[in-house]
Amino acid sequence: MRNPKFVVDYTQPSIIRPQPPAPAAPADTGATGGEATTDAAATVPAAPATVAPPPPVPGFIPPPPAPERHPRDLPPTVRAHTLACSGSGILFFTRANRLHFKNLTANEEVGQICKIQEIHGVFTAIACGGSGETGGYVVAVGTSKGVVAIYDVQTKKRVLSWTLKPGVASLAWNGKILTIGAASGTIVHYDTRISPVEKMKEQAVTVTRHQAPITRMEWNAEGDMLASADKKGNVYCWKTGEKVPLDVGEFVLRRKKIKHCAAISAVSWCPWQPKNLVTADIKGVVQFWTIDPKNKDTNAMTPARLDTGSSITGLHWSSQCKEFMTTHGYKVPEHLAPPPPPPPPSSSGPLFPYPPPPGPNVENTLAVWQFPSLRFVTNMRMNTTDVPIGNSVVFAKGMKVVFGVPEQGKIHACDVWGKKKPDVKIRRQSSLDYVGCIR
Known about the structure:
By secondary structure, the protein is mainly beta.
């Protein structure tokens, strides 16, 4: 939705444009016809005439307007995660102030679930939860003004709704528990099984540690640990039922921290190893951790860091092999690039050369990497134009990925970690296009 233009109505009185003086009222002659009355209105002096602005100084040349900067030269930012897919293959996405859905397993048209009013803000988060065995799938949405709503995936009807101030920044499901990360940095756990809504809000569990808006959250596969990240580059891991984060990370001033030098844009737990966590930021740095509070040493893996050189917008593990995929935006400008990592100890040998060799160019691509070697495998770039990749989500047991391209206003789908299908003619739709196979 485009921003409204600032318009000044010159037909109304305004301090921006001086108004001409009002004409003087005619003098009221009395009964005698020769004497004028001396009321207060007659003694008000007339407004001075409008003074024309002084002419420009001879030889003055106004400065040229500032040139428009290419988006590639602007500092990267974290996009609101407004793309989600249910376990039944229903994709949910937003367009302006509308929430839409698309059945990825059938050739159906795009449908609309709801439309929010301007007073409720804009969509800032979407998350799918539930399962076919626990009463069906649900989708939760949040807005910048704090409106939270839960819809049934099958019926597309609203189940619950409430508000959370100051606004919703991130959502994550853990069974029937909906975890909400607020724009203030607060994390609130709601048990959606509690009824009515007022009682559910009273029994909600609130934890605080972040000092910046939450950007991403995710529960691990076992549902006993939550990873939360914010715009200041901090990541905290929480055990279920505890209000204090785990003491994990690498040592920073004698304290363990999981810290990036930029806002976190992705957190992802390994599906086959619930204690392995990957964090990524908008400056293209990926870090790997083993979340074990019993380990008194650093929780960083070896190798512990991958610098891709391009802004990261999403990260997904493969459920079929030991690989992971990153989605990227523009290349990080040189003046904003993160500092290089410290050199490894001399005992590292030739396995970890320093400085590390230059990596592949993954700008505006979907890239696949091996784990734990972090070796580059392959990537895929859009064939139409060089535009950044936006939000992404995997489905079909992690063998397909759906990703958005905000500059095009389109959503694309492709196969990854699956069998390559023969080339067939498929029906193209304006909202979802199949673009091939990555791996």
